[in-house]
Amino acid sequence: MKNKLYLIIFINFTLVNNIFANGNHEHGNHNHGVVIDQGFVITDLIAPLGITTLTLLLLTFSMGFYISKVPKKRKLILPWHKRVASLTVILALSHAIIVIFFH
Q1: What pTM, to 2 d.p., does this model score?
Q2: Which of 31, 32, 50, 60 lies at a C-alpha separation of 20 to 30 Å from 3?
């Protein structure tokens, strides 16, 4: 379980770093949105937030599935399952707000 978690985190950070390093934007070279700092546009967070949200969603599902298969570990995993689920909802809402209002 721990190795799979590390693999998911590694893949997530690799994808996010590739998006920022290559400058792959959805609409080519032009940026639109709210400029927070010189060179940074809030819409640059769309892909990393989406990838992170999906990763956390898969992690939450995996934890719930593990709880159902190994009931002895329920007290250990359930609090973390709830925390990761809450974080997933927060990131998903942030992602949706940025997409709807700024993109």
Answers
A1: 0.62
A2: 50
